[in-house]
Design brief:
Elements lengths: L1 H21 L10 E4 L11 E4 L2 H9 L3 E4 L6 H6 L5 E4 L2 H8 L4 E4 L18
Parallel strand pairs: 2-3, 2-4
Antiparallel strand pairs: 1-4, 1-5
Length: about 130
Amino acid sequence: MQLRLRRCSRQFAFVAIAFLSTITPASAASSELICLKSSDPASLDDLAIACYSDQACTYVEQHNGEALRDYDETSVAAALGREKIEGIVTSSAPIIKQIKGYGYTCVPLPEFIDQTTSAHRDPRRQ
């Protein structure tokens, strides 16, 4: 009886761990990084920023940057190196490694995007 109970509780523990590992908490931080030469990701005025997710592109637009959606990933590092574009939001480790050599600093993309910000945009940009 004790062996059966121990095996049952062990199986329950494995099932519980497997289930919990598939759940992503709502408060999980974004895995995307915003990479810029300037140190302030909140000040994107008139900067052209490559982005690959709706969250990243929305962040760029809400901070008055020009969101370059789905910029070609094979040429983005070269474009950043030649400063044809001013930044990127990505989770690609190879791109991040390469552009750090060009002097870019990468920080986690802030998770919360204020949906009311777009209503209070700079009137010059509307």
